[in-house]
């Protein structure tokens, strides 16, 4: 018979109280499954980020322009673990962080290849954007900006992200592919990876329909096992591998400030910093609202502890740049963990630990292919769009910006672009309807910023 020491019972109760388990109706099992599910849904970044930042797919490129693959892998895992842990402990939200897809592509293909800016200086740009974020957060400006967004647009943002990640899931699975004639089309349904993804979708749908707790997580697990048995998913070459050195990238972001200030303080770098800042701000804002809505954590139209959540996100960007990776941001894949049961920051502790463990078990990540994780993204999209009923579609002045926000995200493959289009049309339709006084002054500021963004930066 196990005997609990009184001190342990007290500490366990304090832990439950800190994360508000009883208030949110959760428990350790749900949080652990949620944390595991979130990790599995975003573990792909551990593979894709090093490939992107090292420009592996670009041939005949001088090594000086490439970031070290192993160092970026370690930086990615550490930045994800640190950012996720900060979000979990400070803001107590089940929202994981990692270097963002899209922002890393901008970093590699636009800043380095197109602009010709060295990756060392590009990391400095990420560092600057993170510092600016922290300043905006500490002054309360960033939180005020998010809370000024009307509830209908918040719902639209969450629903739009749902469609976006569903599209990403279909694309990653090969179910939807490029078609030069009509942009996109149906993929090869006889391909093994596509078949595995379809099987995964069916399994996950059955589990979710039956109300199985953690159905998305078990869907990923079962799909992975089936994939290995069928020979579609590669079996791991090993279990434990050596951890690469982070030395090639660690602290490099600081060096250009002192060694080559002429390359840092330029108009071109200002555009780079503003782009990092701009895209990360609205991607993060959209993700925070979407995940909070999915988890039922919103208090009316306000996101509680938004300042703490935004600080964790900002601090993660700064830390990630110093470690040696592009912008670290909140991940919409966290909705998979929420759907599996996560409601508190305790799930983030689980996810962060798994990111740290991934440093030692890198060979095992080979079984987490896009065909395995795609079903989770697709099903989460279904769950996220469910909030669309909260939009009053009979009010045309609301329906237009909400609709444009929703459809523009998957169609432009950009969360920030979808938000921008919706935020431009909202003041227009409200003013024409004679409801200018209902518009928060900050929404006019967003209108101007987005117009300038599309004209001069996009």
Automatic annotation (TrEMBL):
Protein name: NCS2 family permease
Family matches, as Pfam families: Xan_ur_permease
Main location per the UniProt record: membrane
GO MF: purine nucleobase transmembrane transporter activity
Family to which this protein belongs: Belongs to the nucleobase:cation symporter-2 (NCS2) (TC 2.A.40) family. Azg-like subfamily.
Superkingdom, taxonomy of origin: Bacteria
Entry's Gene Ontology cellular component terms: plasma membrane
Residues that span the membrane, as ranges: 32-51, 71-90, 97-117, 123-141, 153-172, 192-209, 216-233, 270-292, 345-365, 372-391, 403-427, 439-457
Compartmental location: Cell membrane
Upper lineage: Bacteria, Bacillati, Bacillota, Bacilli, Bacillales
Native organism: Siminovitchia fortis
Membrane topology: Multi-pass membrane protein
Keywords noted in UniProt: Cell membrane, Membrane, Transmembrane, Transmembrane helix, Transport
InterPro entries linked: Azg-like (IPR045018), Azg-like_bact_archaea (IPR026033), NCS2 (IPR006043)
């Amino acid at each position: 018979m196990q005997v609990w020491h009184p001190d342990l019972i007290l500490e366990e109760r304090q832990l439950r109280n800190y994360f508000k388990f009883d208030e949110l109706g959760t428990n350790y099992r749900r949080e652990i499954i949620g944390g595991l599910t979130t990790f599995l849904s975003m573990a792909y970044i551990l593979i894709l980020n090093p490939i992107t930042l090292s420009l592996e797919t670009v041939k005949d490129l001088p090594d000086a322009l490439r970031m070290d693959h192993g160092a970026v892998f370690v930086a990615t895992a550490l930045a994800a673990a640190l950012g996720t842990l900060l979000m979990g402990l400070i803001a107590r939200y089940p929202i994981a962080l990692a270097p963002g897809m899209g922002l890393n592509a901008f970093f590699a293909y636009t800043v380095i290849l197109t602009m010709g800016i060295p990756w060392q200086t590009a990391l400095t740009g990420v560092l600057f954007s993170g510092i600016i974020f922290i300043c905006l957060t500490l002054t309360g400006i960033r939180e005020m900006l998010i809370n000024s967004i009307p509830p209908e647009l918040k719902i639209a943002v969450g629903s739009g992200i749902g469609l976006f990640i569903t599209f990403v899931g279909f694309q990653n699975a090969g179910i939807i592919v490029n078609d030069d004639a009509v942009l996109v089309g149906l993929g090869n349904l006889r391909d093994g990876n596509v078949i595995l993804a379809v099987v995964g979708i069916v399994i996950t749908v059955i589990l979710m329909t039956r109300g199985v707790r953690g159905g998305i997580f078990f869907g990923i697990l079962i799909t992975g096992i089936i994939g290995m048995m069928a020979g579609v998913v590669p079996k791991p070459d090993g279990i434990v591998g050596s951890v690469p050195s982070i030395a090639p990238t660690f602290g490099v972001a600081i060096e250009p400030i002192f060694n080559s200030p002429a390359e840092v303080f330029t108009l071109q770098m200002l555009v780079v910093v503003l782009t990092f800042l701009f895209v990360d701000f609205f991607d993060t804002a959209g993700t925070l609202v979407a995940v909070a809505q999915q988890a039922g954590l919103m208090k009316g139209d306000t996101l509680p502890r938004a300042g703490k959540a935004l600080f964790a996100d900002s601090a993660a960007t700064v830390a990630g740049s110093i470690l040696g990776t592009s912008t670290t941001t909140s991940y919409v894949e966290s909705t998979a963990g929420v759907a599996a049961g996560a409601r508190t920051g305790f799930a983030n502790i689980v996810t962060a630990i798994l990111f740290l463990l991934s440093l030692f078990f890198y060979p095992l990540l080979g079984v987490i292919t896009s065909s395995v994780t795609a079903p989770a993204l697709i099903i989460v999209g279904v769950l996220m769009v469910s909030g669309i009923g909260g939009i009053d579609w009979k009010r045309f002045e609301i329906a237009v910006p909400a609709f444009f926000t929703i459809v523009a995200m998957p169609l432009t493959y950009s969360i920030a672009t979808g938000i921008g289009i919706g935020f431009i049309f909202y003041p227009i339709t409200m003013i024409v309807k004679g409801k200018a006084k209902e518009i928060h002054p900050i929404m006019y500021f967003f209108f101007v910023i987005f117009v300038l963004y599309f004209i001069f930066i996009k």
